[in-house]
Amino acid sequence: MTGSSSAAFSDTLINALKSILGPGGLLTQDTDTAPYLTDWRGMFHGKAFAVARPASTEACAKTVKLCAWHKIPVVPQGGNTSMVGGATPDDSGRALVIVMSRMNRVRDIDRIDNTMSIDAGVTLKAAQDAALDAGLMLPLSISSEGSADIGGILATNAGGNNTVRYGNARELALGLEAVLPDGRILNLMRRLRKDNTGYALRQLFIGSEGTLAIITGAILQLQPKPKSIETALCAVADARAALELFAAFRNAEPSAIQAFEFMSGLSMQLVNTLIPDAPLPLAEPSPAYVLVELASPRGGDTLRGLMEEVLGKALEDGLVSDAVLAESEAQRQAFWKLREEHSEAQKRAGTSVKNDVSVPLSAIPEFIDRATTACKKLIAGIRVAPFGHIGDGNIHFNLVQPEGADGAAFLACDHEIMDAVTAIVRDLGGSFSAEHGVGQLKTYMMPAWRGGAELDVMRHIKTAIDPEGIMNPGKMLPEVG
User: Where does the FAD-binding PCMH-type domain lie (predicted)?
Assistant: First the structure.
């Protein structure tokens, strides 16, 4: 027997899904499905015949199997925080959006292995809190951690603030559980640091943006909970000074650096102006800022002395013009709020074009200078607001519409702006997507950047695992022809 050649959304199909998903597991009313059909930035708006909310891996598998039978496209969605439209369906109305929010159990924390077994629908913040309650730390940290969930984070191989020390999501995942496009459950939930038995399949699904499977569970590596943390906000002249300061900390004690974040003066000004209770804690505004955090699992460590020593020398040398150290956890959180609210502040300032790029660390100053010049030549009055994870080479080179400009007209230039920026990134040996993924926003870039054998291999993998092409269609891989 074969499934139907088109999705006929009959009462029989809807009832079958309801039977699988249970009460509250299937949303069909427009008012209920609407929040799942638009991306966080408001750039992409799609349609779906329903939104499924499975409460278990088995329910998710049965749902996907039914979709495979009817050749219904499936769009996996986590916290719907994608910056590139990676979890938004197209406008055909044929897709079923599958949301993981009801799969929200922390299954187990092993204090000997320092691992956490967890459902995909657990938010990153809830996972962090569970680890802390066990006296451990989940070192992943991103701005949207209150809403982004573990499945989406792994599907996009999220990076974030602590990548400079602990790596991306990929480095933290030991095991994985996923539902394949035919509805089979792939169980790779092994808590092993060493397992040399064939292809590392979990790594194939991490970063695949939901185009190969739906991640339903994971085993994550945890770290000892820091007992000493020192955080400082520093005023610097530019990215060159920021990198020199990073080198000073790295030369003094590389293992102490937990985060090292760069913020441009304009981007910080937007936060101070548009975000409530986010004042600048320095005497004067600066052309750029660095947020540096040191951490150690040892109590009574000398991190304060290290922070003061490095910053003292930087102040003497003119590398830093001003700095303030957090004197309490509340002040530390206030510093981090200044960093985490950049995307929201830019959203409130108007339409923005976002470039999530990476280049070698030594090339960052040249990249920012050249890209700033190129964008200002393109559009008069454009507001250049870069910020990001300068310690690992990832800069969010964001462009905000000129004050008083028409947002739609500005957004219509997004490809021209992105292409101008990424041309410089490519010249410097970088990547057009460092951590946000490709989604549907940047698929057009893939042939030029990943064409030839590399893109062919990706397509072969997609065809082998998802021959009907039902899993998150239109994302990451460009259409052929």
Answer: 44-225
Q: Which residue in this structure is represented by tokens 């003061």? A: 308
Render pLDDT for 347-366 as a digit per residue (tens, 0 to 9).
999 999 999 999 999 999 99
Instruction: Name the fold adopted by 350-434.
Output: Alpha-Beta Plaits (3.30.70)
Structure tokens that stand for 272 in this block: 């101070």
β-pair partners for 356: 396
Cβ 52 vs Cβ 99: under 8 Å: yes
Instruction: Tell me: pLDDT of 217 over 60.
Output: yes
> Residue 284 — φ and ψ, nearest 5°?
-135, 150
Tokens for 152, please give them: 């989406």
User: What is the C-alpha to C-alpha distance for residues 302 and 198, in angstroms, rounded to an integer?
Assistant: 45
Torsion of CA 275, 238, 402, 42, to 10 degrees: -50
How far apart CA 123 and CA 140 sit, in angstroms, is 12
Location of each CATH 3.30.43.10 domain in the chain: 11-99
**CATH assignment of 11-99?**
3.30.43.10
- pLDDT confidence of residue 43: 87
Cα–Cα distance measured from residue 42 to residue 20, given in angstroms and rounded to the nearest whole number: 32
Q: What is the pLDDT of residues 237-281, one digit of tens each?
A: 999 999 999 999 999 999 999 999 999 999 999 999 999 999 999
**Closest residue by Cα to residue 291 from 252, 341, 363:** 341
CATH 3.30.465.10, domain 106-224, yes or no: yes
User: What is the C-alpha separation between 470 and 381, in angstroms, rounded?
Assistant: 43
What type of residue sits at position 238? D
Phi-psi region of 125 (alpha: psi -120 to 50; beta: other; left: phi over 0): alpha
Return residue ranges of the chain for CATH 3.30.465.10: 106-224
3-state DSSP assignment of residue 393: coil
